[in-house]
Specification:
Elements: H1 2-27, E1 50-55, E2 60-63, E3 68-75, E4 80-88, E5 94-97, E6 110-117, E7 125-135, E8 140-150, H2 159-164, H3 168-173, E9 178-179, H4 181-192, H5 203-212, H6 219-223, H7 233-243, H8 245-249, E10 257-258, H9 259-270, H10 280-291
Parallel strand pairs: 2-8
Antiparallel strand pairs: 1-3, 3-6, 4-5, 4-7, 7-8, 9-10
Length: 293
């Protein structure tokens, strides 16, 4: 009986000691302290957005049926939040225009407006192209240019006013006030080839162009020298050089064609009876056909 008592006492003592060691071991493991999330350093946004309008130019004139090329760049030192485009009529009413930038790569610091506007259903007078921009810190800016819209009938206008007001010169050359011969040829190629995705030019249309611009018959036969039914760059350049448009219209001989020189040159071609007037029906037909379609 005494042996059994001591045996039981040893078992209890061993069990108690083992548990106490386990508790000491567990309590010795430190609890990991979570790493605090660093406070982000605030980004300085000291400057408001910057707006640069390349086109149209201040006080340019456009027909109500013309095409106005709008080209602008908006930037911010940190991040843009909103950019809006408006047409403002002479009474100050604003019409918001959608901004379409297919193919233009944008970033949060830069946005480009590159599109056209036909100011149809508007009255004659001074209109504004207005751009408003705001960055993510809330700073807002705006910038505008004033353009003159002409809504009168084409037949009531002199040729130079009407031609310059089509906006064709600015649209073809973007922001250039004068063209060298290469730019001149490209602009006239856009008239002759109505489809920019197809290099095969309609022969009938080229022949019509020849008749309307100086009375040249069978122009396609003269230009397509290799007879492959394509108007290649070299053929176009040689053909236009033969017509002597660039040389004859460059009145100040600076090897550049200004918009005024272009308007004067075309007016001379279209003044068939040389009375310093273009008949209203031909004036409207040709202006619409070649420069407003």
């Amino acid at each position: 009986m005494k042996k059994n008592y001591w045996l039981l006492l040893c078992i209890l003592l061993f069990a108690f000691t083992s548990c106490d060691k386990d508790d000491d071991t567990n309590s010795a493991v430190p609890t990991p302290t979570p790493t605090p999330t660093p406070t982000p350093t605030p980004t300085s946004d000291a400057d408001p957005p910057q707006i640069t309008i390349f086109s149209p130019y201040q006080n340019d004139s456009y027909l109500a049926i013309a095409v106005v090329g709008i080209y602008a760049e908006i930037t911010d030192d940190v991040s843009l939040d909103k950019v809006e485009l408006f047409l403002v009529n002479p009474s100050g009413e604003r019409k918001q225009l959608s901004i379409e930038n297919a193919g233009t790569q944008e970033t949060n610091k830069k946005k480009t407006i590159n599109q056209i506007l036909i100011p149809s259903n508007t009255i004659s007078g001074d209109h504004g192209i207005l751009i408003e921009a705001k960055d993510r810190s809330g700073k807002a800016v705006s910038k505008s240019v004033s353009i003159r819209v002409i809504a009168e009938d084409l037949a009531d206008l002199d040729f130079k006013t009407a031609f310059i007001s089509t906006g064709w010169f600015e649209r073809m050359g973007c922001c250039n006030r004068s063209w060298d011969v290469e730019m001149f040829n490209k602009a006239f190629y856009s008239i002759i080839n109505r489809s920019p995705w197809d290099y095969s030019v309609d022969t009938t249309y080229v022949n019509e162009f020849g008749l309307d611009f100086g009375g040249h018959s069978q122009l396609w036969f003269k230009w397509d020298t290799n007879k492959n039914e394509y108007l290649e760059n070299s053929e176009l350049e040689n053909g236009l050089d033969d017509l002597r448009f660039f040389k004859n219209w460059d009145k100040n001989q600076d090897n550049l064609i200004s918009e005024d020189e272009l308007a004067d040159g075309i007016a001379i071609l279209w003044d068939v009876n040389k009375d310093n007037k273009v008949t209203p029906d031909e004036f409207e037909r040709k202006l619409l056909k070649y420069f407003l379609s």
